[in-house]
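Field log, afternoon session.

UNIT: design team B
ACTIVITY: writing a sequence onto a fixed backbone
BACKBONE:
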């Protein structure tokens, strides 16, 4: 083989490797970012579509269908000084207004399945029985909350909660919401002092990117 053909073959090999590398990178699952706008400031979150596709995908569907805009609000704040559960946790919880459009509940993705943990800023699905929750009702951890992982005892069934994302900016807003004072509803002792008289509204939820930043 002469020098010309050898050089051409070398260049072709490198080009092939570059194309394969680019295709491989594009094949990796992308984690979208969503901006939640509130009167107290903005919260940007990353959704773990790669690790929790069912839970993150349902939350993303609410965003893309516009079901959160002016319909979603942070309505519950849980802190050590007002928590009535065991072990004690610290979170803020969001949900849709009464009468708002909801998608069907989704199956429960445990942290044992996803490998995720309830760390500071983690987003997770609020639920009653496994399979009754969805992206419309979620909470954000304030500080690490291992009591919410699979096998822990915050929920007596031991299944934990379905972590599906994390806050990438705006944790100061999360903490400001968490510091708000709840009221006594007189209906459920478990949430006494945790319900906000005026929920912190999510005025708009916007998909920022299809790739983690």
């Amino acid at each position: 083989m002469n020098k010309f053909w050898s050089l051409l073959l070398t260049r072709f090999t490198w080009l092939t490797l570059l194309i394969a590398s680019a295709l491989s990178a594009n094949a990796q699952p992308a984690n979208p970012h969503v901006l939640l706008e509130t009167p107290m400031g903005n919260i940007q979150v990353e959704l773990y579509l790669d690790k929790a596709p069912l839970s993150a995908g349902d939350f993303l569907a609410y965003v893309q269908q516009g079901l959160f805009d002016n319909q979603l609000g942070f309505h519950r704040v849980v802190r050590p000084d007002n928590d009535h559960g065991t072990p004690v946790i610290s979170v803020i919880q969001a949900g849709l207004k009464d009468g708002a459009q909801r998608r069907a509940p989704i199956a429960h993705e445990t942290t044992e399945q996803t490998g995720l943990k309830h760390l500071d800023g983690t987003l997770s699905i609020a639920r009653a029985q496994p399979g009754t929750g969805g992206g419309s009702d979620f909470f954000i951890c304030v500080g690490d909350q291992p009591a919410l992982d699979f096998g822990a005892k915050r929920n007596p069934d031991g299944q934990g909660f379905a972590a599906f994302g994390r806050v990438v900016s705006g944790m100061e807003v999360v903490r400001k919401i968490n510091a708000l004072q709840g009221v006594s509803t007189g209906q459920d002792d478990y949430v006494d002092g945790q319900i906000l008289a005026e929920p912190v509204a999510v005025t708009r939820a916007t998909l920022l990117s299809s790739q983690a930043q």
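LOG NOTE: The helical segments are 3-27, 53-64, 111-114, 171-178.
NEXT ACTIVITY: expression trials, pending approval
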